Amino acid sequence: MSIKIYSPEEAKKSILRRDMALEPTVPTRLQQSLDAMFGQGSTPQTAVTTILSDIKTGGDAALKQWTSTLDGVDLEQLHIPEEELVAAIDKIPADLKEALQLAANRIRAFHEHQPLNSWETDSLGGRLGQKITPIERVGVYVPGGTAPLPSSLLMSVIPAQVAGVKDIVVVTPPQQTIGSIPDVIKATAAIAGVNQIFMLGGAQAIGALAFGTESVPAVDKIVGPGNLFVTLAKRQVFGIVGIDGFYGPTETAVIADETADPAWVAADLLAQAEHDVLASALLFTPSEKLAEAVQVEIGKQMEQLSRTEIIAVSLANQSGIVLTKTIEEATELANDYAPEHMCIATKENGRLTPKINKAGGLFIGERSFEVLGDYVAGPSHVMPTGGTARFASPLSSVDFVRITSIIELDDQTSAKLSPAAAIIAKAEALTGHAAAAQFRADE
Q1: Do 143 and 18 share a structural domain?
Q2: Shared-domain flag, residues 121 and 221
Q3: Distance from C-alpha of 309 to C-alpha of 417, rounded to nearest angstrom
Q4: How close are the terminal C-alpha atoms of the chain, in Å?
Q5: What's the structural domain count of the chain?
Q6: Which domain CATH number covers 277?
Q7: How confident is the model at residue 171 (pLDDT cuts 50, 70, 90)?
Q8: For residues 100 and 185, is the Cβ–Cβ distance under 8 A?
Q9: Using alpha carbons only, what angle is made at residue 300 by residues 27 and 334, rounded to the nearest 5 degrees?
Q10: Which terminus of the chain is more solvent-facing, meaning fewer CB atoms within 10 Å of its CB: N or C?
C-alpha cells in the first residue's frame, strides 16, 4: 500500500474537492448503531438533538446514562478531585513530564506575545476606544476516546489562561478499559493548573457545558476539537454559548521540490494519515522523481508503524500526490485548498511563502515540520480545517476575550456629528433615529 499520484485535473475532481465534506458519509456500522439506539433512519444530527435534549432536562443522571450507553463506563461521580490530578504527575514517566512541561512553557510564551491591549484615543473628539476583558468561564473539550491527547489540553487551556480566563472547565471522555481518564491527562491538567475536569465525552459533554447540570457549570464559550458528534453538538448549541469553530478531519499539504528529502516528506504525510481514516495528507510537487521516491518511502515506512489500517484508508481515499508542471502551480493549488497545515520544503521557501495566505499554520522548511506544531513549537494546534482557513484562524488568546467599544464624545463633537446622523437615518426611513439625532443638533 502506498499513495496515488494525481494530475492537477484529476486532483481537483477528487482529493481537492471541498464540497464532499458537506454531506459526510455515515459508515454502515455507525448507521446500524444509530438505528438500534435512536430508531430506524436516524441521522447523527437527530441523535445529537436527542442527547442534548436529555442533558438539558435530565442533568447529571442523563450524563451518566449516556456515558454508560455510549462509552461503556458507569460513573459514580463525574468530577475528578484536584488531589487525584496532582497525584497523577508522579505516575507518568519523568521524561514525559519534562516534555509536557516544555510544551506548556513554550505555548504560554508564544501566546503571551499576542497583543490583547485596551486602548483609547481623544483624536476623534472626546473619548473613543476599546476595552478588552476576558470571558468569565470557558469549557475545553479534549478528545480521548481511543487515545489520550494531552497536547490538546495544553493547546486549548493555556491560551485561555494567558487571556485572563479565571474559570476553565475541561471535559474529556473516560476510557472503557480503565473506567476513568488516563493518568497522562490528569497529570497534564495539573501541570497546566486546571482543577475542574469532568469525565465526559461526545455530544453529552457539549450539552453539559452549554446548559449546565448539578455538577457541571454552564460556560460562556466552548473550545476544542472533537469527532462528528461533538461538532454537530457545537453547531446546535451555538448561540446559547460561544463556539471557537467547527473542526473536521485534520489535514496537511506539503509543497516540495526536488531538493526535499523524500524520507522526511513521506514521514510527514504518514504522521498526518495516522490521525484518522478521514485525515488528508497531500503533497504538491513538480518533481516526478520526488513523487515516486515518496511513494516508495511511504510503502517502506508504513511497515514500521502501528496504525497501518487507519493510514491505509486515509491514503487511499483522502490523500495523494499532485504532480504539477511548476512549483508556482503547486503553490497556487495548495493555497486554494486552504489547508489546516501548510508545509514548505523547497529551495525557494523565501520566495514562495509570501504567496501563501490561506492556511491555519505555515511550516517553513523541513526542520519546521508539522509534528513540532502538534506538540511543542508554541502556537495552538487547534487550527481551521475543511477549507475554513480562507476566513478562520487558529485558536489563540484572542478567542478568550471580549472587545467592548467605548464611546464618550464631547459636546462639540456630538453636536457636529448629529446632523449627519439625522440625514442618514431619514434615508433609511427611521424617523425616530432622525429625531433623536436632531434634538442634539438643535441644541
Answers
A1: no
A2: yes
A3: 67
A4: 81
A5: 3
A6: 3.40.50.1980
A7: very high
A8: no
A9: 60
A10: C
Of 221, 243, 265, the last residue of a domain is 243
- The per-residue pLDDT for range 62-111, each reduced to its tens digit, is 999 999 999 999 999 999 999 999 999 999 999 999 999 999 999 999 99
Q: Give me the catalytic one of 341, 366, 370, 381.
A: 341
List the alpha helices (DSSP H) in 41-182. 44-71, 82-88, 94-112, 150-163
Residue 249, C-alpha cell as written in the block: 478531519
One domain, residues 219 and 269: no
Kind plus residue range of the DSSP H or E element containing 281: strand 280-285
Let me know how many helices (H) and strands (E) the chain has, helices first: 17, 14
Where a domain ends, among 214, 243, 272?
243
Closest CA to 281 of 352, 371, 219: 371
Structure-block grid coordinates of residue 324? 504539477
At CA 248, angle to CA 270 and CA 302, rounded to 5? 10
Residue from 332, 261, 320 nearest 5 by CA: 320
* Closest C-alpha to 406, from 8, 94, 124: 124
* Pairing between β-strand 341-345 and β-strand 251-256 as defined by DSSP bridges: parallel
Query: How many CB atoms sit inside 10 A of residue 168's CB?
Result: 24
User: Which CA distances in Å does 304 have to 271, 299, 308?
Assistant: 12, 10, 9
Question: Cell match 446548559: residue?
Answer: 211
Per the structure, the complete domain to which residue 424 belongs is given by 409-441
Cell of 198: 469532568
pLDDT digits (tens, 9 = 90+) for 245-257: 999 889 999 999 9
For residue 325, the SS3 value is: coil
Cα–Cα distance between 211 and 413 in angstroms, integer?
A: 45
Report the chain's mean pLDDT, rounded to a whole number: 95
Helix (H, G, I), strand (E, B) or coil at 181: coil
340 is catalytic: yes
> Cα–chain-centroid distance for residue 297?
30
Q: Which residues contact 207 (CB under 8 A, 6 or more apart)?
A: 51, 52, 54, 55, 56, 233, 237
Across-strand partners of 344?
A: 255, 364
Nearest-5° Cα angle at 134, 396 to 157? 45
191 touches 137 (CB < 8 A): no
Nine cell digits for residue 427 = 434615508
Q: Which of 340, 366, 370, 381 is catalytic?
A: 340
User: Are the beta carbons of 248 and 21 closer than 8 angstroms?
Assistant: yes
CB burial of residue 14 (10 Å; 0-12, 13-18, 19+): middle
Note the pTM of the prediction, 2 decimals: 0.93
